[in-house]
Design brief:
Elements lengths: L2 H8 L6 E3 L6 H4 L13 E4 L3 H13 L4 E4 L15 E4 L6 E4 L4 E5 L4 H9 L15 H6 L7 H4 L6 E7 L5 E4 L5 H7 L9 E8 L7 E9 L3 H14 L7 E10 L3 E10 L3 H13 L3 E7 L1 H10 L6 E4 L2 E3 L5 H9 L8 E10 L21 E9 L5 H18 L15 H6 L3 H11 L13
Parallel strand pairs: 2-4, 3-4
Antiparallel strand pairs: 1-2, 5-6, 6-9, 7-8, 7-9, 10-12, 10-13, 11-12, 11-16, 14-17, 15-17, 16-17
Helix pairs in contact: 4-10, 8-11
The structure holds flavin-adenine dinucleotide (FAD).
The site of flavin-adenine dinucleotide has 34 residues, from strand 3, helix 5 and strand 9.
């Protein structure tokens, strides 16, 4: 029998566009945003409807082939793809609609940050989405979702009020506060890839805002002592901080730009008020940029800075206490020497608190509500020859960060975590395991760091 016909027959029952090895599109279709991930699935099925998704689950089970779920393909470790598995890609499903009566917005699970900002921003609404335009709102929200509106509007998952999911049997489930409410709880911080394939999500709409202030903070040519002063100031500055402001900052060592500090964020208020809030950094030598604009314009500017892809290794840890100057110097020292072949390395900090801390650690699956900020370390390279030396570089430095921090953020996942369930979900692990057993008893939805 002709090989092509044989292949097509073997995919009978799979609907949507199917891309397999040998197809022209395969090389591109198997890629993730992190190009350091190179995996070879048996097929990628692009699902345009819920029926396509249901058929994909049934087909994979009939053929004893593992499933990976993909919306935006931005998983740091590439767990939305794999070798010898079926990628169920829902990325083309992007419908979005406001329900004015209920004050909600519903969207299909292939939608990206940029689509939501454009749709809601044009109607005057902000949204607690992420920073990168092409991150899938599904993956982002299911892992918690830290963004520049976090301290003002909460995490992405805090606004999630309902979802629909295709389960291990291919059945469509609805989950909200009255039906399958345990599943909604679990999907607010631990839902990525674990329980089933989310097909749509409903969020509470925030109040409209006319203008926000886009914040930029910069120290070029920052010496290690400037960086240490910044981190010390940062940890003190966060205490009692106005919830209207959310920023992150990177202490970087770049092959192109040398050592520096660069931060960005949003303030839900005027530039004059933001200037007052950021005064301590200005007095400490930072250049502060403040510009009032619409929420949509601000997100557009933030998103323009992202490249289309990178090769990187990165982590993110929760910080629960203040550091001594000695500890701060050690943190700064982590990036003094880049790994061989690294073009950029950074220690980055992301402010928590505000509205994020108003929710209890057990109210959603996102456990680390009381942390002051997230701190991560990353290395970026271009030439594949340097991949392993960069990964080792990060692993060595991670050992120190792990000792002084409390747990890992599942949206900034790291494949070298020994007890990843505890690290990601803290005191919520037992409940999450029960829910995984209830909604996916056969462990159909599995990946290297799945809830078991
Ligand atoms: C450049 C960049 C910038 C980022 N910025 C931020 C940020 O500002 N804030 C933040 O919190 N995170 C950020 N992240 C991390 C990002 O939020 C997570 O990687 C997120 O999981 C990506 O979602 P995705 O749909 O794009 O990725 P995918 O790789 O498609 O999916 C990520 C995970 O979610 C699962 N998943 C995806 N879709 C579904 C679905 N429909 N149903 C069930 N499970 C699903 C996948 O199986 C996988 O385990 C960033 C990542 C990158 C690469």
């Amino acid at each position: 029998m002709n090989l092509v016909i044989k292949m097509k027959l073997s995919f009978r029952g799979l609907t949507g566009e199917v891309v397999t090895p040998g197809d022209q599109k395969y090389e591109e279709a198997r890629q993730e945003w992190n190009r350091a991930v190179q995996k070879f699935p048996v097929a990628i099925v692009y699902c345009n409807s819920v029926t396509d998704i249901q058929n994909a689950v049934r087909w994979a089970r009939c053929n004893h082939i593992g499933i990976r779920i993909r919306s935006g393909g931005h998983h740091y470790q590439g767990y939305s793809v794999g070798n010898g598995i079926l990628v169920v890609d829902v990325g083309s499903r992007k419908q979005i609609e406001i329900d004015p009566e209920n004050g909600t917005v519903s969207m299909q699970s292939g939608i990206k940050n940029r689509d939501v900002y454009n749709y809601l921003g044009a109607r005057g609404y902000p949204f607690p989405g992420g920073t990168c335009p092409t991150v899938g709102v599904a993956g982002y929200t299911l892992g918690g979702g830290w963004g520049y509106s976090g301290r003002y509007l909460g995490l992405g998952c805090d606004s999630l009020s309902a979802l629909e999911m295709v389960d291990y049997q291919g059945k469509l489930l609805r989950s909200d506060r009255s039906r399958n409410s345990d599943l909604l709880w679990a999907c607010r911080g631990a839902g990525g890839g674990n329980f089933g394939i989310v097909t749509s999500m409903t969020f509470q709409l925030p109040s409209k805002v006319a203008q926000v202030t886009l914040v930029e903070l910069e120290y070029s040519d920052a010496s290690p002592s400037t960086m240490a002063c910044f981190l010390d100031l940062w940890q003190k500055w966060l205490v009692g901080l106005d919830p209207g402001i959310t920023i992150n900052a990177s202490l970087y060592n770049s092959a192109q730009d040398g050592m520096g500090i660069y931060g960005k964020g949003l303030f839900y208020g005027s530039a004059a008020e933001a200037a007052r809030i950021l005064k301590p950094f200005e007095q400490n030598g930072a250049t502060i940029g403040l510009e009032e604009m619409t929420f949509r314009e601000a997100m557009q500017k933030i998103q323009d800075a992202y490249p289309d892809s990178e090769k990187f290794q990165s982590t993110g840890r929760f910080v629960n206490r203040n550091y001594s100057l000695k500890e701060i110097k050690t943190i700064v020292g982590l990036i003094r020497q880049r790994a061989e072949g690294s073009v950029y390395t950074a220690v980055s900090v992301y402010a928590l608190g505000g509205k994020i801390a108003e929710v209890g650690p057990r109210d959603t699956a996102f456990y680390y509500r009381n942390s002051a900020y997230i701190m991560g370390i990353q290395s970026v390279w271009e030439d594949d020859r340097y991949a392993s030396v960069n990964r080792c570089w990060l692993y060595e430095r991670f050992q120190y960060l792990r000792r002084i921090t409390a747990g890992s953020y599942v949206n900034f996942p790291y494949n070298c975590l020994a007890n990843y369930e505890e690290e990601y979900y803290g005191g919520n692990v037992c409940r999450l395991r029960q829910i995984a057993g209830k909604y996916d008893p056969l462990n159909v939805f599995s990946f290297p760091q799945a809830i078991r």
